[in-house]
UniProtKB/TrEMBL annotation:
Name of the protein in its database record: Family 43 glycosylhydrolase
Keywords, in A-Z order: Carbohydrate metabolism, Glycosidase, Hydrolase, Polysaccharide degradation, Signal, Xylan degradation
Record family assignment: Belongs to the glycosyl hydrolase 43 family.
Residues in the signal sequence: 1-24
CDD domains: GH43_XlnD-like
PANTHER family assigned: ENDO-1,4-BETA-XYLANASE, PUTATIVE (AFU_ORTHOLOGUE AFUA_2G04480)-RELATED
Length: 323
């Protein structure tokens, strides 16, 4: 009996030690996926990526959950084109929000080229992070170009004062717009304007993101072409979600020894220990198929002045990190 107890204790201790030293690898899960959206829901890490395939095959989104950033569970087809009546192809770039016990999934669809085409940014809703998500409005939330921004690549930002903002835009222009509290539309700000352009520099291309840290608004985005090696991430810091934002510099880019085209990212912020992780996609070394994009996670840190320290992309990824 005593020997059995000792044995059980040893096995338990070994399992715990292994869990503590577990390490992710990059990519963090198999498959061609891009534009990863990072969210923390129900005390778990979640990643919602674009299915990286030809536009006609981008008809569903899978999601991935984890308790430690190392072991990931796949949730298949959490949002399907069949559940979005107006979507026909090219479903891209999830952005997630939790509000009043519901989960909201913003996305782009149809890759519209002008205001006559049907498509743009839509929103779907579910009772659980793993879906199934269903289209909320029966039409796009943003269905036209404003300030030159193609309505793609949404990001949802919840400010401390309770306001919800949608930041989005491709074709080298970024807009910020205030959302109605039920996400059924957009509202004008007191100056009467609805679509505020916050394009920070001529290098801006797409994939915007915002977070607040120590009272400052960090605006991040992707530069370069997403199919090529130079895709990368840069950032600015401002005093309001409406800007102005002035480019500070690049913080994520290819490493010719590790991978190329590192970009279109999002971040996990773990409040418990104020740690930050950057979640992004990149191409495997030597692979020139633009859709061969894989999701990776590396550490993101700040210097004493609050600037983001350029990220070292790795093959090893990050150690296990409990929430
Ligand atoms: O595959 C989808 C598209 O790729 C995104 O919306 C772009 O930002 C690029 O990452």
């Amino acid at each position: 009996m005593r020997i059995r107890n000792v044995l059980v204790q040893t096995i338990l201790a070994t399992a715990l030690a292994l869990a503590a030293t577990a390490h992710a690898e990059n990519p963090v899960f198999p498959g061609w996926y891009a534009d990863p959206e990072a969210a923390i829901f129900q005390n778990q890490y979640w990643i919602y990526p674009t299915t990286s395939a030809r536009y006609g095959e981008q008809t569903y989104f899978d999601a991935f959950s984890s308790t430690d950033l190392v072991h990931w569970t796949k949730h298949e087809s959490v949002l399907r084109m069949a559940d979005v009546p107006w979507a026909k192809k090219a479903m891209w770039a999830p952005a997630m929000a939790e509000k009043d016990g519901k989960y909201y999934f913003f996305f782009a669809a149809n890759d519209i080229q002008n205001d006559k085409a049907l498509g743009g940014i839509g929103v779907a809703v579910a009772d659980r992070p793993e879906g199934p998500f269903k289209d909320l409005l029966g039409r796009p939330l943003i269905d036209a170009f404003h300030n030159g921004a193609q309505p793609i690549d949404p990001f949802v930002f919840h400010d401390d004062d309770g306001s919800w903002y949608l930041i989005y835009g491709g074709w080298k222009h970024a807009n910020v717009v205030k959302l109605k509290p039920d996400f059924s539309g957009v509202v004008a700000t007191p100056d009467g304007k609805t679509y505020h352009e916050i394009t920070p520099s001529p290098q801006y291309v797409e994939g915007p993101l915002m977070f607040k840290r120590n009272g400052k608004y960090y605006f991040m985005w992707s530069e370069g072409g997403w199919t090529g090696p130079d895709y990368s991430v840069a950032y600015a810091i401002g005093d309001s979600p409406m800007g102005p934002f002035k480019r500070i510099g690049k913080i994520l880019q290819q490493d010719p020894k590790i991978g190329t085209g590192a970009g279109h990212h999002s971040v996990f912020h773990v409040a418990r220990d104020d740690s930050w992780f950057i979640v992004y996609h990149r191409h495997p070394l030597g692979d020139t198929d633009g859709n061969h994009r894989e999701v990776c996670i590396d550490r993101m840190t700040f210097d004493a002045q609050g600037h983001i320290v350029p990220v070292q992309i790795t093959r090893e990824g990050v150690p296990a990190h409990a929430l």
